[in-house]
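question for whoever is on the cluster today: can someone run the full assembly for these? two chains, 615 residues total. i dont have access anymore since they changed the login thing
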Amino acid sequence: MTTSVLDAAPRGSRLLRAFARNPSFLFGCAILLAVVVVALLAPWLFPGDPQDMVAPPTLWPGEDMAYPLGTDSLGRDVAAGLAYGARVSLAVGVIAAALGLLIGAVVGAIGGYFGGKVDLVLARLTELFQTIPTFILVIVIVAIGQPTATVIVTAIGIASWPTVARLVRAQFRSLREADFVMAARSLGYSHWRIIVHEILPNALPPVVVTTSVMVANAILTEAGLSFLSMGDPNLVSWGSMIGDGGPLLRTAWFLTALPGAAIALTVLSLNLVGDGLNDVLNPRSMQQ
Amino acid sequence: MSLSRSAVALRRTAVHAVPTMLGIVVLCFLLLQLVPGDAVDVLAGQSGSATAETMSALREQYGLNQGLGSQLWSYLAHLAHFDLGRSVRFGTPVTQLVLDRLPATLLLMLSALGFALVLGIVAGWVMAAFANRWPDRILQVVVLLFYSTPGFWVGLMAIVLFSVKLGWLPSSGNATIGSALTGFDYLLDRARYLVLPSIALSTFFIAIYARLTRASMLEVTSQDFIRTAAAKGLHPFYIQLRHALRNALIPVTTMAGLHLGNLLGGAVVVETIFGWPGMGRLALDAVVGRDFNVLLGVLLLSSLVVIVSNAIVDQLHAWLDPRIEGH
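^ ran it for u. tokens below:
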């Protein structure tokens, strides 16, 4: 009875129901939404520059309720830093992941669709970038360029595309000979049209699942980079807050603990969303 | 038979590794070209009294005024003699600088990898054995937390707990300075310094291997040969260990190979926190001193470490899974 109702429902609402039945996915969405809201509202919640000294240095959380999460060694408000840091982390994560997706999709689609020598060269290129330790490559690129947000995002994007390329390539290789592609070909559609309008939409589900994990990884990479004080010096980020708190680890460890917890929570929410997407979009793995 | 299997694996590795290494070398060369200014600019800046004429004479001498192609050729020729150039800051050959730091990094890497594999596989095995019951659910939450937490932050928090509050373990360095320990005491001393960095580096990988082991154990246990083994009347524990786990380990070893690069990248941050004298620290010092020969030497050598380790993983594979032979 219920199954027949489900079958009758359009695809979109069936997916929605599947998501609604997945508590960890909903939990992840809720955390992620909260982080996004804080990031968007940061200028209204904490007017003024988060880099300004506003109170005596190293106030512990709760010591002065005007600064509920305390202040750092330069008297900067930790709560304000966390809110502005959310903007940096999310923006870097999303843009870098988008760049990685774009490069990976182009490389994977061309290689998988055309095959032959082109594919061989692109597969080798992918393998090459998978062999190089990602984080060290990012460090090299940022050191050669300048530590600006643009260079950092580009470096993380360049270092993260191989996973997507392999996924898209595999999808294109299996869909290349599918009937609907044959039909499109016999209608005389151009390669471009077949790649973008015929195969790509069908190749997307596994890529969608990877997206949230890529954003999570980009956030972790940015955090590591700015922890090593290789981030953009004009921006407060969670990683740089951990780095600034380092020398005070013995006395004021909350300066390290709080931004780290913010990173962990955000990355956790992205991973929960990714797992949820995987359960719903790749039903095979749900049986396990 | 097993010999021919490993020979096939070796040949496959060679076919893949050589072009990859060559590609990485070319990439390193191109990255070096992107560095603003050249070695002569650096030398001129150091001497402080260089004229345009002496600078162009130096460029002539070092071959910097030649075309990109012939410069690449001489870069490759130098590499063939393991010559990565000189460090601008230390004046010593880069190869020696990097190789001096390699053992410390390898020790940290292997220790973290071993830690991650053992804990990850045990956790994954327990999760699969209790699939969808409460030990599985609790471990899944723990594993997800490990998966999401930056390793360097775990390291810092571990310093607060184990070094500052409890005073159990040292927080910086890789051996007690100026101590004249020998034999077992020396090893114990080194091991005490290794614990916290290894934990910090391994958390993320524990999570990966645990998830992977769980998934692949569940997949394997539903296959026919497991049912056959059970029908033969073998003890369930023996089936789990000898038949299921061995097969479930194949994807885990593949992943372990793929993640070695990430492990090396993570080592950069962890070495910085714990004052561990490895390649990662060297790389960061090179960034601060704008010593690009050293920086690219680290990139090149760490890529080589990944390639060699992948070859070892391939060999391990050939031993674990006889089906790979014909591949």
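summary bc i know u wont read the tokens: Residues 203 and 286 of chain A are 19 Å apart (CA to CA). Confidence is low (pLDDT under 50) at residues 1-8 of chain A.
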